[in-house]
Amino acid sequence: MTAEPVSADDFYAVQRLLHRYVDAVIHRDGALWASTWAAEATWDLGRGRLVHGKEAIVDLWYKAMAGMHAVVQVVHSGDVRYGDTRDAAAGRWYINEWFRRADGSNNILLAHYDDEYVRVDGEWLFSRRFLQSHYTGPADLSAEFTNHRAALVERGLPADV
Q1: Which domains does the chain have, with CATH numbers?
Q2: Is the overall model pTM greater than 0.85, yes or no?
Q3: Does pLDDT of 35 surpass 70?
């Protein structure tokens, strides 16, 4: 991946892709959610939850959503840079998610997605999403954070503070 940021038009197009994704999650719209993925995509939710191919990705999403009573996902800041061509890019976007599971338990997720995108027929789609959780647990933040210095160093990240 080069260090070159995508054009303003491409950045906006990727933002719209992210909006469609989040809107589909909030409104439980499987067809809209599926439309954000490329055919040969990969979705990595961490902790061994890795699937390849759009059909398998959509199947996992439906199974995950069946365990949710309600969920609200919000995308915050992000950046996108071109890959080897102008039809490939990579980005990172920070998210919050508030959810109530089907069993009635409430939790939040603080995380980021490391994404790869591909332009197909003029439209940006996800070709890979890797979810990196920083916190999952009660809203009072009483569960363990996973982005403290020792955890980052264990993952091989240059945490120097």
Answers
A1: 8-154 (3.10.450.50)
A2: yes
A3: yes
